[in-house]
Specification:
The protein is α+β, with helices and mostly antiparallel strands. The chain has two domains: 2-232, P-loop containing nucleotide triphosphate hydrolases (Rossmann fold, 3-Layer(aba) Sandwich); 235-357, OB fold (Dihydrolipoamide Acetyltransferase, E2P), CATH 2.40.50. It has nine helices and 22 strands. A six-stranded mixed sheet has the order 6-7-8-3-9-10, sandwiched between helices. It has a five-stranded antiparallel sheet with strand order 16-20-17-18-19, with no helix packed on it. Helix 3 (107-120) packs across helix 4 and helix 4 packs parallel to helix 5 (166-183). The mean pLDDT is 89.
Length: 362
Protein backbone atom coordinates (compact mmCIF):
# COMPACT_ATOMS: atom_id res chain seq x y z
CA UNK A 1 0.00 0.00 0.00
CA UNK A 2 1.03 3.64 -0.41
CA UNK A 3 2.47 4.82 2.90
CA UNK A 4 3.68 8.25 1.84
CA UNK A 5 2.27 10.43 -0.94
CA UNK A 6 3.36 13.75 -2.39
CA UNK A 7 0.27 14.97 -4.20
CA UNK A 8 0.41 17.64 -6.94
CA UNK A 9 3.30 19.50 -5.30
CA UNK A 10 4.19 22.92 -6.75
CA UNK A 11 6.96 25.15 -5.45
CA UNK A 12 8.44 28.37 -6.82
CA UNK A 13 11.71 30.04 -5.94
CA UNK A 14 11.05 33.65 -6.90
CA UNK A 15 10.22 33.67 -10.60
CA UNK A 16 11.70 30.17 -10.99
CA UNK A 17 9.39 27.16 -10.88
CA UNK A 18 11.37 24.68 -8.80
CA UNK A 19 8.65 21.99 -8.69
CA UNK A 20 5.75 21.62 -11.12
CA UNK A 21 2.72 19.46 -10.23
CA UNK A 22 4.69 16.52 -8.81
CA UNK A 23 2.86 13.44 -7.56
CA UNK A 24 4.84 10.58 -6.04
CA UNK A 25 3.56 7.62 -4.02
CA UNK A 26 5.96 5.56 -1.90
CA UNK A 27 5.00 2.04 -0.82
CA UNK A 28 5.53 0.78 2.71
CA UNK A 29 9.07 -0.58 3.16
CA UNK A 30 10.12 0.62 -0.31
CA UNK A 31 13.38 2.33 -1.25
CA UNK A 32 12.68 4.99 -3.85
CA UNK A 33 15.35 7.22 -5.37
CA UNK A 34 14.96 10.76 -6.67
CA UNK A 35 17.46 10.85 -9.53
CA UNK A 36 18.31 13.77 -11.75
CA UNK A 37 20.90 16.38 -12.69
CA UNK A 38 21.93 19.17 -10.33
CA UNK A 39 19.24 21.83 -10.05
CA UNK A 40 16.36 19.58 -11.14
CA UNK A 41 14.48 20.04 -7.86
CA UNK A 42 15.09 16.70 -6.18
CA UNK A 43 16.51 18.12 -2.93
CA UNK A 44 13.74 20.74 -2.82
CA UNK A 45 11.19 17.94 -3.16
CA UNK A 46 12.88 16.02 -0.34
CA UNK A 47 12.75 19.11 1.87
CA UNK A 48 9.03 19.50 1.12
CA UNK A 49 8.53 15.85 2.06
CA UNK A 50 10.38 16.42 5.34
CA UNK A 51 8.43 19.57 6.16
CA UNK A 52 11.49 21.81 5.89
CA UNK A 53 9.92 23.65 2.93
CA UNK A 54 6.28 24.52 2.42
CA UNK A 55 4.88 23.93 -1.09
CA UNK A 56 2.86 26.62 -2.86
CA UNK A 57 0.25 24.00 -3.72
CA UNK A 58 -0.36 20.31 -3.16
CA UNK A 59 -0.48 18.00 -0.17
CA UNK A 60 1.86 15.72 1.80
CA UNK A 61 0.08 12.57 2.98
CA UNK A 62 1.37 9.93 5.39
CA UNK A 63 -0.56 6.76 6.20
CA UNK A 64 -3.71 8.19 4.66
CA UNK A 65 -3.77 11.61 6.33
CA UNK A 66 -2.37 15.03 5.50
CA UNK A 67 0.66 16.04 7.57
CA UNK A 68 1.04 19.53 6.13
CA UNK A 69 0.28 21.17 9.48
CA UNK A 70 2.53 18.86 11.51
CA UNK A 71 5.98 20.44 12.17
CA UNK A 72 9.03 18.46 11.01
CA UNK A 73 10.15 17.42 14.50
CA UNK A 74 6.73 15.88 15.20
CA UNK A 75 6.56 13.72 12.07
CA UNK A 76 8.91 10.95 13.26
CA UNK A 77 10.89 11.10 10.02
CA UNK A 78 14.64 10.65 9.95
CA UNK A 79 16.87 12.71 7.65
CA UNK A 80 20.53 12.20 6.81
CA UNK A 81 22.49 14.88 4.99
CA UNK A 82 25.46 14.64 2.63
CA UNK A 83 27.90 16.13 5.16
CA UNK A 84 26.52 13.79 7.89
CA UNK A 85 26.20 16.75 10.34
CA UNK A 86 27.71 14.84 13.26
CA UNK A 87 28.30 16.74 16.50
CA UNK A 88 32.08 17.14 17.00
CA UNK A 89 31.74 17.75 20.76
CA UNK A 90 29.91 14.43 21.29
CA UNK A 91 31.41 10.97 21.12
CA UNK A 92 29.92 8.35 18.82
CA UNK A 93 27.58 6.90 21.45
CA UNK A 94 26.19 10.33 22.30
CA UNK A 95 25.80 11.27 18.63
CA UNK A 96 23.64 8.22 18.03
CA UNK A 97 21.72 8.87 21.26
CA UNK A 98 20.78 12.43 20.30
CA UNK A 99 17.42 11.71 18.67
CA UNK A 100 16.42 9.41 21.52
CA UNK A 101 17.28 12.14 24.03
CA UNK A 102 15.09 14.59 22.11
CA UNK A 103 12.24 12.10 22.47
CA UNK A 104 12.99 12.00 26.23
CA UNK A 105 13.52 8.25 26.28
CA UNK A 106 14.70 6.64 29.52
CA UNK A 107 18.43 6.07 29.92
CA UNK A 108 18.06 2.28 29.83
CA UNK A 109 16.13 2.51 26.56
CA UNK A 110 18.77 4.83 25.09
CA UNK A 111 21.63 2.55 26.10
CA UNK A 112 19.92 -0.51 24.64
CA UNK A 113 18.97 1.19 21.38
CA UNK A 114 22.38 2.80 20.79
CA UNK A 115 24.06 -0.55 21.41
CA UNK A 116 21.74 -2.13 18.84
CA UNK A 117 22.56 0.58 16.31
CA UNK A 118 26.32 0.22 16.82
CA UNK A 119 25.96 -3.50 16.17
CA UNK A 120 23.80 -2.86 13.11
CA UNK A 121 26.46 -0.67 11.48
CA UNK A 122 29.36 -2.88 12.65
CA UNK A 123 30.86 -0.28 14.99
CA UNK A 124 30.35 -2.13 18.28
CA UNK A 125 33.60 -0.90 19.86
CA UNK A 126 33.42 2.70 18.64
CA UNK A 127 30.99 4.19 21.16
CA UNK A 128 33.57 6.21 23.11
CA UNK A 129 35.54 7.45 20.09
CA UNK A 130 35.47 11.04 18.90
CA UNK A 131 34.13 12.04 15.49
CA UNK A 132 37.53 13.28 14.34
CA UNK A 133 38.97 9.81 14.93
CA UNK A 134 36.74 8.25 12.29
CA UNK A 135 37.22 7.71 8.57
CA UNK A 136 34.69 9.04 6.07
CA UNK A 137 33.03 5.64 5.78
CA UNK A 138 32.78 5.25 9.55
CA UNK A 139 31.21 8.69 9.86
CA UNK A 140 28.66 7.75 7.22
CA UNK A 141 27.66 4.67 9.23
CA UNK A 142 27.42 6.68 12.45
CA UNK A 143 25.17 9.21 10.70
CA UNK A 144 22.96 6.40 9.46
CA UNK A 145 22.82 4.84 12.92
CA UNK A 146 21.83 8.20 14.43
CA UNK A 147 19.08 8.57 11.80
CA UNK A 148 17.69 5.08 12.49
CA UNK A 149 18.04 5.08 16.30
CA UNK A 150 14.69 6.81 17.08
CA UNK A 151 12.88 4.19 14.92
CA UNK A 152 11.58 6.66 12.32
CA UNK A 153 8.55 5.78 10.23
CA UNK A 154 10.30 7.08 7.12
CA UNK A 155 13.96 7.85 6.33
CA UNK A 156 15.18 10.51 3.90
CA UNK A 157 18.76 10.46 2.64
CA UNK A 158 20.14 13.48 0.77
CA UNK A 159 23.17 12.39 -1.30
CA UNK A 160 24.24 10.06 1.56
CA UNK A 161 27.41 8.93 -0.22
CA UNK A 162 28.14 12.11 -2.16
CA UNK A 163 31.07 13.29 -0.03
CA UNK A 164 32.97 9.98 -0.26
CA UNK A 165 35.44 8.82 -2.89
CA UNK A 166 34.25 6.39 -5.57
CA UNK A 167 35.77 3.20 -4.15
CA UNK A 168 34.40 3.89 -0.67
CA UNK A 169 30.98 4.80 -2.11
CA UNK A 170 30.71 1.46 -3.88
CA UNK A 171 31.64 -0.47 -0.74
CA UNK A 172 29.33 1.49 1.56
CA UNK A 173 26.42 1.38 -0.88
CA UNK A 174 26.11 -2.36 -0.30
CA UNK A 175 26.27 -1.80 3.48
CA UNK A 176 23.61 0.91 3.27
CA UNK A 177 21.23 -1.31 1.28
CA UNK A 178 21.78 -4.22 3.68
CA UNK A 179 21.02 -2.07 6.73
CA UNK A 180 17.90 -0.52 5.19
CA UNK A 181 16.69 -3.98 4.16
CA UNK A 182 17.21 -5.27 7.71
CA UNK A 183 15.25 -2.41 9.25
CA UNK A 184 12.50 -2.52 6.57
CA UNK A 185 12.06 1.22 6.87
CA UNK A 186 10.45 3.18 4.04
CA UNK A 187 13.21 5.23 2.42
CA UNK A 188 13.46 8.16 0.00
CA UNK A 189 16.93 9.09 -1.10
CA UNK A 190 18.36 11.68 -3.43
CA UNK A 191 21.30 11.20 -5.76
CA UNK A 192 22.65 12.40 -9.08
CA UNK A 193 24.64 9.17 -9.49
CA UNK A 194 22.94 6.72 -11.85
CA UNK A 195 24.94 3.69 -10.70
CA UNK A 196 24.05 4.42 -7.09
CA UNK A 197 20.36 4.72 -7.90
CA UNK A 198 20.19 1.62 -10.08
CA UNK A 199 21.97 -0.47 -7.45
CA UNK A 200 20.05 0.68 -4.38
CA UNK A 201 16.48 1.59 -5.38
CA UNK A 202 13.36 -0.53 -5.71
CA UNK A 203 12.01 2.24 -7.94
CA UNK A 204 13.58 5.35 -9.44
CA UNK A 205 11.94 8.72 -10.01
CA UNK A 206 13.71 10.62 -12.79
CA UNK A 207 13.42 14.40 -12.46
CA UNK A 208 14.44 17.19 -14.83
CA UNK A 209 13.66 20.91 -14.57
CA UNK A 210 11.31 20.50 -11.63
CA UNK A 211 9.19 17.80 -13.24
CA UNK A 212 8.87 14.03 -12.88
CA UNK A 213 9.70 12.36 -16.18
CA UNK A 214 9.35 8.69 -15.24
CA UNK A 215 8.88 6.49 -12.17
CA UNK A 216 9.86 2.88 -12.70
CA UNK A 217 11.95 -0.05 -11.56
CA UNK A 218 15.66 0.27 -12.44
CA UNK A 219 15.56 -2.48 -15.07
CA UNK A 220 12.44 -1.23 -16.82
CA UNK A 221 13.62 2.37 -16.69
CA UNK A 222 16.92 1.49 -18.35
CA UNK A 223 15.35 -0.68 -21.05
CA UNK A 224 12.23 1.43 -21.63
CA UNK A 225 12.84 5.16 -21.17
CA UNK A 226 9.52 6.91 -21.70
CA UNK A 227 10.77 10.08 -23.35
CA UNK A 228 13.78 11.88 -24.74
CA UNK A 229 14.47 13.69 -21.44
CA UNK A 230 14.96 10.35 -19.65
CA UNK A 231 17.01 8.88 -22.48
CA UNK A 232 19.18 11.98 -22.61
CA UNK A 233 19.81 11.94 -18.85
CA UNK A 234 20.77 8.26 -19.03
CA UNK A 235 23.27 9.12 -21.76
CA UNK A 236 21.43 7.44 -24.63
CA UNK A 237 22.52 9.41 -27.68
CA UNK A 238 22.04 7.04 -30.62
CA UNK A 239 19.28 8.85 -32.52
CA UNK A 240 18.74 8.37 -36.26
CA UNK A 241 16.31 10.33 -38.43
CA UNK A 242 14.31 8.26 -40.88
CA UNK A 243 10.89 7.22 -42.14
CA UNK A 244 8.49 4.36 -41.54
CA UNK A 245 8.01 1.92 -44.41
CA UNK A 246 4.70 0.34 -43.41
CA UNK A 247 4.53 -1.85 -46.51
CA UNK A 248 7.73 -3.66 -45.59
CA UNK A 249 7.46 -3.33 -41.78
CA UNK A 250 10.71 -1.46 -41.32
CA UNK A 251 12.25 1.94 -40.58
CA UNK A 252 14.40 3.43 -43.33
CA UNK A 253 17.45 5.51 -42.38
CA UNK A 254 20.69 6.71 -44.02
CA UNK A 255 22.36 3.80 -42.18
CA UNK A 256 19.98 1.25 -43.68
CA UNK A 257 16.85 -0.67 -42.73
CA UNK A 258 15.89 -1.35 -39.12
CA UNK A 259 13.21 -3.86 -38.18
CA UNK A 260 11.97 -3.71 -34.57
CA UNK A 261 11.08 -6.71 -32.45
CA UNK A 262 7.34 -6.02 -32.28
CA UNK A 263 6.43 -2.36 -32.59
CA UNK A 264 6.49 -0.08 -35.62
CA UNK A 265 4.95 3.41 -35.36
CA UNK A 266 2.32 4.48 -37.83
CA UNK A 267 3.47 8.09 -38.11
CA UNK A 268 6.40 9.07 -40.29
CA UNK A 269 7.38 11.93 -37.98
CA UNK A 270 9.68 10.04 -35.66
CA UNK A 271 13.33 9.18 -35.05
CA UNK A 272 14.95 5.90 -34.10
CA UNK A 273 16.82 5.44 -30.82
CA UNK A 274 19.24 2.53 -30.49
CA UNK A 275 19.87 1.64 -26.85
CA UNK A 276 23.56 1.42 -25.90
CA UNK A 277 23.49 -2.30 -25.08
CA UNK A 278 21.91 -3.28 -28.43
CA UNK A 279 25.09 -3.55 -30.58
CA UNK A 280 27.48 -6.45 -31.00
CA UNK A 281 30.60 -6.54 -33.21
CA UNK A 282 30.55 -9.12 -35.99
CA UNK A 283 33.00 -10.10 -38.79
CA UNK A 284 32.82 -8.06 -41.97
CA UNK A 285 31.58 -10.96 -44.10
CA UNK A 286 28.68 -11.59 -41.69
CA UNK A 287 27.78 -7.91 -41.76
CA UNK A 288 27.47 -7.96 -45.57
CA UNK A 289 25.12 -10.95 -45.37
CA UNK A 290 22.70 -8.98 -43.21
CA UNK A 291 20.14 -6.75 -44.89
CA UNK A 292 18.80 -5.00 -41.78
CA UNK A 293 19.64 -3.99 -38.19
CA UNK A 294 23.29 -3.27 -38.85
CA UNK A 295 25.75 -0.37 -38.56
CA UNK A 296 29.30 0.15 -39.73
CA UNK A 297 31.89 2.85 -39.34
CA UNK A 298 35.27 3.58 -37.82
CA UNK A 299 36.22 3.45 -34.17
CA UNK A 300 36.39 7.01 -32.92
CA UNK A 301 37.16 6.13 -29.28
CA UNK A 302 37.36 3.20 -26.90
CA UNK A 303 36.86 3.63 -23.15
CA UNK A 304 37.48 0.61 -20.95
CA UNK A 305 35.14 0.87 -17.94
CA UNK A 306 35.67 -2.41 -16.12
CA UNK A 307 32.46 -4.33 -16.70
CA UNK A 308 32.12 -2.92 -20.21
CA UNK A 309 33.90 -1.00 -22.94
CA UNK A 310 32.32 2.14 -24.34
CA UNK A 311 32.70 1.92 -28.13
CA UNK A 312 32.27 5.21 -30.00
CA UNK A 313 31.69 4.77 -33.73
CA UNK A 314 31.63 7.36 -36.52
CA UNK A 315 29.68 6.34 -39.61
CA UNK A 316 30.39 7.30 -43.22
CA UNK A 317 27.90 10.19 -42.99
CA UNK A 318 29.69 11.52 -39.86
CA UNK A 319 27.05 10.46 -37.34
CA UNK A 320 28.45 9.33 -33.98
CA UNK A 321 27.08 6.39 -31.98
CA UNK A 322 28.11 5.07 -28.57
CA UNK A 323 27.62 1.46 -27.44
CA UNK A 324 28.47 -0.55 -24.35
CA UNK A 325 30.27 -3.76 -25.29
CA UNK A 326 31.21 -6.56 -22.86
CA UNK A 327 35.02 -6.50 -22.43
CA UNK A 328 35.35 -10.12 -23.51
CA UNK A 329 34.37 -9.09 -27.05
CA UNK A 330 37.30 -8.50 -29.36
CA UNK A 331 37.19 -4.95 -30.68
CA UNK A 332 39.11 -3.16 -33.44
CA UNK A 333 41.48 -0.38 -32.49
CA UNK A 334 40.90 3.33 -32.76
CA UNK A 335 40.62 4.38 -36.41
CA UNK A 336 39.88 0.86 -37.67
CA UNK A 337 36.65 -0.26 -39.33
CA UNK A 338 33.98 -1.83 -37.15
CA UNK A 339 30.90 -3.82 -38.14
CA UNK A 340 27.93 -4.14 -35.80
CA UNK A 341 24.69 -6.05 -35.65
CA UNK A 342 21.86 -4.35 -33.80
CA UNK A 343 19.51 -6.33 -31.57
CA UNK A 344 15.90 -5.74 -32.62
CA UNK A 345 14.57 -5.40 -29.05
CA UNK A 346 17.00 -2.53 -28.44
CA UNK A 347 15.14 -0.23 -30.85
CA UNK A 348 12.85 2.60 -29.69
CA UNK A 349 10.94 5.19 -31.70
CA UNK A 350 10.77 8.86 -30.72
CA UNK A 351 7.58 10.62 -31.80
CA UNK A 352 6.91 14.32 -32.29
CA UNK A 353 5.51 14.47 -28.74
CA UNK A 354 8.95 13.54 -27.38
CA UNK A 355 7.78 10.16 -26.11
CA UNK A 356 9.53 6.88 -26.83
CA UNK A 357 7.84 3.69 -27.93
CA UNK A 358 9.45 0.34 -28.48
CA UNK A 359 8.98 -3.39 -28.09
CA UNK A 360 6.51 -5.44 -26.08
CA UNK A 361 7.71 -4.22 -22.69
CA UNK A 362 7.16 -0.49 -23.35
Amino acid sequence: MDEFVLSHICKSMGAYGALTDITLAVHRGERICLLGPSGCGKTTLLRVAAGLEQPDAGDVIFQGGSIMKIPPHRRNFGMMFQDFALFPHRNIFDNIAFGLEMKKEKKAVINRRVTQMLELVNLEDYGHRRVDELSGGERQRVALARTLAPSPDLVMLDEPLGSLDRLLRERLLADLCHILTQTRVTTIFVTHDQNEAFAAADRICIMTQGQVQQIDTPEHLYNHPENLAVADFLGFQNLIAGAVDSDHGCFLTPQGRFVPDAFLPEANACDLLILPWAASPIPEHEWFKRTENRLSGRVLDLFFQGSMTRLVVKTADDQVFAFDIPPRKKLPRQGEAVFLKICSDGLRFLGKDGRLKGNKGS
